[in-house]
Design goal:
By secondary structure, the chain is an alpha/beta fold. The protein folds into two domains: 4-60 and 357-410, Urease, subunit C, domain 1 (Roll), CATH 2.30.40; 62-348, Metal-dependent hydrolases (TIM Barrel), CATH 3.20.20.140. Helix content is 37%, strand content 23%. It has helices spanning 83-95, 100-116, 129-139, 159-171, 193-206, 218-228, 232-238, 256-264, 273-278, 286-291, 311-326, 334-340, 343-348, 381-387, 415-430; strands at 4-13, 21-30, 33-38, 49-52, 56-60, 62-67, 119-126, 142-149, 179-181, 184-185, 210-214, 246-250, 268-271, 295-298, 365-369, 394-399, 402-406, 409-410. Strands 1, 2, 3, 4, 5, 15, 16, 17 and 18 form a nine-stranded mixed sheet that branches. Strands 6, 7, 8, 9 and 10 form a five-stranded parallel sheet that branches. The chain has a four-stranded parallel sheet with strand order 11-12-13-14. The longest helix is centred in the first third of the chain and has 17 residues, at 100-116. It is globular, with a radius of gyration of 21 Å.
């Protein structure tokens, strides 16, 4: 039986190529896709569910390009440390104690936060990824998942790589196609070039992209130059990584040559301003990347280094930081900033049916309640979203045409149970 849903008389921010805003707009959803969008009434039958849209603004579901969802367990656990000290002295030792159960409940907490904040698709890289996949299946969210692995001091082989391959084989296309997979070598500084060449061969065999941390800190770049006489970007380009589809997280410290390589090779880039600021890693050259038509979207990183998964915060930071450092208020307009979290994020993932509201696109969307003091008067919808809105303004969230969050209530997740289990797991980890 066809499931139909009509969002009626809302302001529709399409994020299509023309940046059309339809007001009032109507969106007809059939099963998992958008059937029609119109400024005229759409006739429906009596079995169609109606969502009143007056005073509401509909946007494409937000796309979080880089996360470690289960790291919600370490929120507020190790703050105010430099990156390598944070990793080596605090996070890596804590992660060594993680169990499958911890990852399931930590991920479930992240899914609550993301769905409440209008995120409908996220990219994740972590351990026990099958637990993340099971949590995503239960929640109904869309996810691109990778089992992280390293190859340091072991260039000929790594059990983690085989685990990652097994995960791809098991989970690609599961949950009705909402779960797709990707190989996740951690970073060039934990995966030597010879090991990464082996990973590249596996991606060709599996026909899967790569997700990797790249040029996150100044220390990482300086070490790469010392060891290889190349920046991390140049090193990865030299081994042929960018001949494959790649999503690179961070890309903070880039030379002009690096920027040219990333743009020319069509590398997807996850700009994570909140995490980069908190860890003191600097500010990525976003304006320069966009000027060269690089494929850039936004991510939060994990909640251990952010410390939230609020994509509205990342949208605003992406715009305001570039205005400030360049001393030019025209840099990263509201439309450009919102695109980073929607249509541009989808392009970085090479997904043409996400991040936009148009006929035939997946029915992944968020409805914002503009009946709030900080969102009035209704002068410019996109400016209000970028400069005024927050995750708490999200009223309703749909993925694949199904309502997952509605007016403060989760329809697929047990919020109270998740809070209990997460605090139980976190207490055990602290011990």
């Amino acid at each position: 039986m066809t499931e139909k849903l009509l969002i009626q008389d809302a302001t529709v921010v399409t994020m299509n190529e023309n940046e059309d805003i339809i007001e009032p707009g109507n969106i007809l959803i059939e099963n998992d896709s958008i059937k029609a969008i119109s400024d005229q009434p759409i006739d429906v039958d009596k079995n169609t569910q109606i969502i009143p849209g007056k005073g509401k603004v509909v946007i494409p579901g937000l796309i979080n390009l880089h996360n470690h969802a289960a790291m919600c367990l370490f929120r507020s656990y190790a703050d105010d440390y430099p990156l390598m000290e944070w990793l080596e002295k605090k996070i890596f030792p804590a992660e060594s104690k993680l169990t499958e159960e911890d990852v399931f409940w930590g991920t479930s907490l992240a899914l609550l936060e993301m769905l409440r904040g209008g995120t409908t698709t996220f990219v994740d890289m972590y351990y026990y990824m099958e637990q993340t996949a099971m949590a995503c299946t239960e929640a109904g969210i869309r996810a691109v998942l990778s089992q992280v692995f390293i190859g340091e001091n072991n260039p000929e082989g790594n059990n983690g790589l085989q685990d990652a391959i097994n995960f791809v084989d098991q989970w690609q296309g599961q949950a009705g196609g909402r779960i797709t997979t990707i190989l996740g070598p951690h970073a060039p500084y934990t995966c030597p070039p010879e090991f990464l060449k082996k990973v590249l061969k596996e991606t060709e065999h599996l026909n899967t992209p790569i997700h990797i941390h790249l040029s996150e800190s100044r220390h990482e770049v300086e070490t790469s130059l010392k060891m290889h006489d190349k920046t991390p970007v140049q090193l990865m380009n030299g081994i042929g990584m960018f001949e494959r589809p790649v999503l690179a997280a961070h890309c903070v410290h880039l030379s002009e040559e690096d920027i040219g390589i990333l743009a020319a090779k069509g590398v997807g880039i996850s700009h994570n301003p909140g995490s980069n600021l908190k860890l003191g890693n600097g500010i990525a050259p976003l304006k320069k990347l966009l000027d060269q038509n690089a494929l850039v979207g936004l991510g939060t990183d994990g909640a251990a280094s952010n410390n939230n998964l609020d994509m509205f915060e990342e949208i605003r930071l992406a715009s305001l930081l570039q205005k400030g450092i360049h001393e030019d208020p025209t840099y990263i307009t509201a439309n450009e900033a919102l695109a980073l979290a929607t249509s541009s994020g989808a392009k970085a993932l090479q997904k043409d049916n996400l991040g936009v509201l148009k006929e035939g696109a997946k029915a992944d969307l968020a409805i914002l309640d503009f009946n709030k003091p900080h969102l009035q008067p209704h002068n410019n919808s996109v400016s209000a979203i970028v400069y005024s809105a927050s995750a708490s303004d999200v009223d309703t969230v749909l993925v694949d045409g199904k309502i997952l969050f509605d007016k403060g209530s989760f329809l697929t997740l047990d919020e109270e149970r998740i809070y209990y289990e997460v605090n139980r797991c976190a207490k055990k980890l602290r011990r």
